[in-house]
């Protein structure tokens, strides 16, 4: 899809575990048929009175155990102060002549959407102009809106489509806003609460992909139909542009308004890693971008770029999985198949991402999970490759275009576990200008970062990072927290976290991050190695890292805690049920756990490309091997565990955590539970809630690992 609009569509889909479901949660909940043999199926009623009574009772027990001490209150306050800090870097997005930022702090719990000029932004204390005060809006409307983003119409940047979520769920509303008057547009475009979005075509026309009524959503709970909607007309009468199939995942329309390269596209996501992109002509006819569905397709100005997830033979040549190719878009659509290879992976490297400026491409490559930047410049024949001038030599590097239509400037961020994030403005070919630096939130002077490799069951070398005290004794006595995810081709790279620093490292603990298969650290091959029937390899990798930490005497089983959320929550559930002897405590956050039911709960059907279809007997045969809810054995001994989720999570159903908790509790296991009533898939709707949940997790871990 067009790079200029890809970020917007990604935001709309928010999917990587990353995609959610339907309109109001109650609609899908009512349509789901529960398993009559499941004793705890009644907990699948998201807002069922009995289920919520159970939730509140368990929350109270957990609060009494973990949150009643002065130490907890102190830690919660410290984390809240970090989250609320006025000294954090206010990341900005250029919209017209202004630089916009969404900001939350102690005085603005739900946040401010505000703007400034670049001249002001360069100052240590910029002057900001408030555009939307979400707390004031909530007070005026008696609502609990959570910010989901803004899509502003080029080139005037007068009108914006604002997405707001009730309580933090993925389902949201869209409302039209006038930037010049800073007022909501009376009788402007408005989309009712649902999964989906509106996207600008011109000032009086939008693409609408949302819940249009019965039959208009996919089995995953996402839009199945995209329409072209004219201002002043009923949404019901909008023109159908494209209609997907019920078992597709997500259908969307996008207008690329790059001056001189205006185009319209329809995106049909069939499943993860399986999508089609169509060019929509002025006559409304669709022309498919004729490449394999697994290819990530982007259009920037005159260029088509293709990032391959599988080997592709075309035009008499074979290109490796993980490669990035480029061709002239119009030539490609005319049938030519001449490509420039912009990147080809090695055993140690993968393309983390790439960014277009007006006239360059910046490649961000992972080399054994360490970032390396380079610059490519298109021309006649081979593209010119050069260095990214002034790229930092340390840590995780991030690059984003300032304005890919008119500028060759990029935002450059740099960070690692112990070094506060910096933000620089870099004009390609010139030394970056550092504009901002995150403050020091904890004392990192006593710690050091290392990278090690563990050997998994099948002999694969699995990298992991460890942050530990410099003077740590190698006697297994250090409380250590191991984090993992391992799915959806998502890479875990070093990043500064004041909460982890204050809540864990500053106390003398060690912190480790496992780069297991299923992630994207080594590109598509690393991800595909742990799909479906091979899921066990991700769990074997994580277990190998845990065993390596103990073998190196960094820690011991009794002092090793683990934590993960979402797909990482599924990882934690499998560590708990398959490798309980390796850990001293487990934190399971917004997890998938009942893999027999997952595809029938909220957005679960959209993840079958990752896990498989449990309704097919041949696939359930391997899925049940990583379904923690079914692997639980009442006769086994399990480490102390806490389950944490959110009622408003309409992506991963809270029943996964509820039911697992109830089953383990009934068997007399050492478990506790906390469910935030707001928050969506992120678990919290504001900084106060986030601080509380973080403090619960760290307090639980420190208590259990220091017995």
Describe the protein's topology.
Blueprint: H1 3-13, H2 25-31, H3 49-66, H4 70-84, E1 93-95, E2 98-103, E3 112-116, H5 118-121, E4 129-133, H6 134-141, E5 145-152, E6 159-166, E7 172-178, E8 183-184, E9 190-194, E10 197-202, E11 205-209, E12 225-230, E13 239-243, E14 250-256, E15 263-271, E16 274-280, E17 286-288, E18 296-300, E19 303-307, E20 312-314, E21 317-319, E22 324-328, H7 329-333, E23 340-343, E24 349-356, E25 361-367, E26 371-377, E27 384-387, E28 396-401, E29 409-415, E30 422-427, E31 433-437, E32 447-455, E33 461-469, E34 480-483, H8 498-503, E35 510-514, H9 524-528, H10 536-551, E36 560-565, H11 567-578, E37 585-589, H12 608-611, H13 617-623, H14 628-631, E38 641-646, H15 655-666, E39 671-676, H16 687-705
């Amino acid at each position: 899809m067009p790079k200029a609009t890809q970020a917007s569509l990604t935001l709309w889909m928010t999917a990587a575990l990353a995609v959610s479901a339907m309109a109001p949660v109650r609609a899908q909940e009512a349509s789901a048929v529960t398993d009559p043999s499941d004793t705890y199926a009644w907990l699948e009623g998201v807002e069922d009175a009995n289920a919520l009574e159970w939730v509140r009772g368990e929350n109270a027990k957990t609060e009494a155990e973990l949150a009643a001490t002065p130490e907890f209150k102190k830690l919660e306050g410290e984390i809240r102060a970090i989250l609320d800090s006025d000294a954090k870097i206010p990341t900005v997005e250029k919209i017209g002549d202004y630089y916009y930022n969404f900001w939350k702090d102690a005085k603005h719990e739900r946040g401010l959407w505000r703007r400034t000029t670049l001249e002001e932004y360069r100052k240590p204390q910029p002057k900001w102009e408030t555009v939307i005060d979400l707390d004031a809006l909530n007070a005026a409307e008696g609502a609990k809106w959570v910010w989901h983003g803004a899509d502003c119409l080029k080139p005037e940047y007068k009108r914006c489509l604002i997405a707001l979520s009730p309580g933090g769920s993925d389902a949201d509303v869209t409302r039209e806003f006038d930037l010049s008057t800073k007022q909501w547009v009376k009788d402007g475009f408005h989309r009712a609460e649902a999964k989906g979005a509106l996207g600008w075509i011109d000032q009086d026309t939008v693409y609408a992909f949302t819940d249009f009524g019965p039959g208009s959503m996919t089995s995953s709970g996402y839009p199945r139909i995209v329409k072209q909607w004219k201002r002043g007309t009923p949404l019901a009468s909008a023109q159908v542009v494209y209609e997907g199939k019920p078992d597709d995942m997500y259908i969307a329309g996008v207008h690329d308004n790059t001056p001189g390269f205006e185009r319209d596209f329809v995106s049909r996501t069939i499943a993860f890693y399986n999508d089609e992109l169509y060019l929509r002509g002025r006559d409304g006819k669709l022309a498919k971008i004729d490449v394999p569905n697994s290819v990530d397709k982007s259009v920037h100005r005159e260029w088509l770029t293709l990032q391959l997830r599988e080997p592709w033979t075309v035009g008499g040549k074979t290109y490796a999985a993980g490669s990035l190719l480029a061709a002239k878009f119009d030539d490609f659509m005319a049938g030519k198949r001449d490509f420039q290879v912009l990147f080809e992976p090695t055993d140690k490297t993968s393309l983390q991402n790439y960014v277009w400026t007006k006239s360059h491409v910046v490649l961000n490559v992972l080399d054994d999970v360490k970032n390396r930047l380079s610059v490519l410049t298109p021309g006649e024949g081979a593209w010119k490759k050069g260095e990214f001038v002034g790229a930092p030599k340390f840590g995780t590097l991030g690059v984003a275009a300032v304005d890919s239509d008119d500028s060759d400037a990029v935002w450059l961020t740099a960070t690692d576990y112990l070094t506060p994030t910096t933000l620089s403005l870099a004009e390609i070919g010139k030394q970056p200008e550092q504009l901002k630096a995150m403050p020091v939130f904890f004392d990192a002077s006593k710690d050091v970062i290392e990278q090690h490799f563990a050997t998994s069951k099948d002999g694969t070398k699995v990298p992991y990072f460890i942050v530990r005290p410099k003077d740590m004794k190698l006697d297994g006595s250090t409380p250590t927290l191991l984090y993992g995810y391992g799915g959806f081709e998502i890479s875990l790279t070093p990043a500064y976290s004041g909460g982890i620093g204050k809540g864990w490292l500053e106390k003398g603990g060690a912190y480790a991050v496992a780069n297991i298969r299923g992630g994207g650290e080594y590109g598509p091959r690393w991800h595909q190695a742990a799909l479906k029937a091979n899921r066990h390899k991700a769990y074997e990798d994580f277990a190998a890292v845990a065993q390596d930490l103990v073998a190196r005497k960094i820690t011991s089983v009794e002092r090793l805690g683990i934590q993960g959320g979402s797909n990482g929550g599924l990882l934690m559930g499998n560590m708990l049920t398959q490798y309980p002897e390796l850990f001293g405590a487990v934190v399971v956050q917004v997890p998938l756990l009942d893999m027999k039911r997952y595809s029938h709960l909220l957005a679960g059907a959209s993840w079958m490309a990752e896990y498989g279809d449990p309704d097919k007997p041949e696939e359930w045969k391997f899925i049940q091997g990583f379904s923690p809810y079914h692997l639980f054995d009442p006769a086994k001994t399990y480490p102390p565990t806490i389950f944490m989720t959110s009622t408003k999570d309409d992506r991963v159903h809270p029943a996964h955590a509820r039911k697992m908790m109830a089953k383990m509790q009934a068997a007399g296991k050492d478990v506790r539970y906390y469910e935030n009533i707001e928050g969506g898939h992120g678990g919290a709707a504001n900084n106060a809630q986030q601080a509380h949940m973080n403090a619960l997790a760290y307090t639980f871990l420190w208590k259990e690992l220091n017995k």
